[in-house]
Structures are given as structure tokens and as C-alpha cells.
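Bench log, entry 3. Co-assembly request; chain sequences pasted below exactly as received.
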Amino acid sequence: DTAVSQTPKYLVTQMGNDKSIKCEQNLGHDTMYWYKQDSKKFLKIMFSYNNKELIINETVPNRFSPKSPDKAHLNLHINSLELGDSAVYFCASEAGGSTDTQYFGPGTRLTVL
Amino acid sequence: SQKIEQNSEALNIQEGKTATLTCNYTNYSPAYLQWYRQDPGRGPVFLLLIRENEKEKRKERLKVTFDTTLKQSLFHITASQPADSATYLCARGGDSGYALNFGKGTSLLVTP
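Structure output for the full assembly:
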């Protein structure tokens, strides 16, 4: 069984559209994250949710909004997509504590035309 | 902010040799460093964690060191194999919460 899954795998859309990326983990973890990996392969934290509460919100445009319907899901909604949003987005989960390892999903490659 | 630097973008070595990857950090020492492996088109996969008070950690052919004086961690793969070819990411505990702060990674290519 896949520990952390994301859908869709690929997403191609036009500028100005609104899109969502879904993430689910079946590990029973308390904390989930969204990372953005740009064309230079730099992996940067965007959001973190712990027990349905946002605990990290880096300097991310408010066009991006995480939504967590329950502990196992953390979806990423993006409004008014821009060319610069093109990247690979990774979801990850962690059991808890500051030293636990993170388990990453397979990534969603977003291309904005 | 705390930076993680992996200065070598790419490293090519011959099969059977030891690969050594470098990770440097700025300012204060993190409580721990983690190393991940990322294959093309996939998410990072955890390999090893080393704490500030640990000098060295081993797992099979992998070895990680933590030098708080040099502010550096070294990641070694002994008896390297072509299957070890991947990008290796170093990460530290982030500035806020529990988020990891990743380096840009080093792309390792092991040739037969």
C-alpha cells in the first residue's frame, strides 16, 4: 500500500485558472507538509498541518491555501495560477516530534501555460 | 535564516569507489541532520539521521558524519554501485516548527 499518495501526477493548465492537488497518507501521522521543488531542484517548505491546525506558513502567496478535511488528508488549492507556479509539488507526512523522518509522496508536476 | 549548502551539484565516480558528499550549514548547529535520496520523478526517501552529539552513523554501505567545528556533514557510500546513482539531499530542522530545510542536493552518477 502506498504510504503517501498524491493526485494528479501531472497537471497542465492555463494562467488564471484555479486548481487543487490532493494528498492522502495512511501512516496515521499527525503532521503533513507541502513542499515546492522548482526547476533548480530546490525543495522548499510551503505549509505544515498538525492535527488540522496550520503550524507553519512560509512566505507563500495567499493564492495558495491548504485544506485538511481530516488528519489523513492535506489538499493544496491554488487560485489564479501564474507561470511562476510551475514546479513539482510534494506532500509529506511525519509522525511527530522534531526529529522524525518525513515520508514523501510521488509529487505532482504542475505546468502553467 | 539557517542555510544548508551542498556545494557539489554533481559527482561522477567509478563503480566500487567510495562516494563522498558534503553538506555545510550556517550559524548554529542543528539538533540533527537528515539525508534523503531522490530518484528522477519521485519524492525524496529518508536514508539516515545524525544528531548533533553523534560523530558518526552507519547503515549498511552508508556512513554519515557530523562535525560541529567545521559545521559540516559528510555522506559516504562505500563500494558504490550504478544503482546508487541519484540525487542526495541534506536537510536540517527548519527555523520554524518541524519543517525541514533542504540543501539543493548533489547528483551522484556511478559508472560501471
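Chain A touches chain B through 28 residues (CB under 8 Å). Chain A has a mean pLDDT of 90.
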